Structure of 5-formyltetrahydrofolate cyclo-ligase:
Amino acid sequence: MSGDRGGVLSKAAFFLMTHCHHHHHPTLRAFLPSIAVPVRCAAGSATPPAAIVMSDTAALQQKRAVRSRIRKALKDFSPAQRAQEDVEIQNFVLNSSWFKSCKGLCAYISCKSLREVDTSTIIADVLKNSGAEHDLQVMKKLYVPRVEDKNSHMRMLRISTIEDLVANSMNILEPYPVDSDQNEREDVLLASQPVDLLLLPGLAFDRHGRRLGRGGGYYDVFLRKYEELANQQNWKQPLRVALAYSVQIVEDELIPMTETDVPVDALVSSNGVFPISPAAFERM
């Protein structure tokens, strides 16, 4: 009993150290009632959970188990609840100051068959914005993903209208590589200006910013490349914000993580916006 009690106290102490000095943040308060994250790290360790990594073999086994569990939860997720959370999540994004003020972003095109959080309202809002005085947000450059091969190679290409998207062999919408004038679309990795925001999908997330994808590694590879580009150009790193259904957020464990996995700065769920990294607390 005393050992269990000590473990609970150490976990509570870690949570208080990492979060409570931000208790005044309005977006954090929306999440506080539902936060209950046991932190499984060595006694006395000061390493943030998002930075703790394990061997590839051990992580692979744990990832398989988490993926299986979350896929089942998504399959059992009622269409009505999913539709409600789609609306709530997108509204939190659209009404946020960090979204309204961003001048460039990368965002995924949601796929119903993959049971991803819907982004259609966000995409439509960005594309219809003319930058006129009556608009509530600045005009934005929008880049969306195009998968190039099966080797985790994905590009983020700029689009200006929903007609720029075509269905690929898996019936997922993505940009055609050239525009209507047969000019190559701008690749965000070759752009002269940075983006401020990355809206990311995933299969599972924990409250420490760990993200579990579907196993292809496409987003982790892209995120590393953009991180390197921003460092080379001396740009501010964009906020990495994941959109998640309530059933995708793991509350009782840490998502397994290897050195190639890239954590997110914040989560948006139907409960609100949850900033995680120092950058998120500063800018959200």
User: Anything to note?
Assistant: Confidence is low (pLDDT under 50) at residues 1-47. Helices lie at 2-19, 26-29, 56-76, 79-94, 97-100, 120-128, 218-233, 278-283. The radius of gyration is 19 Å.
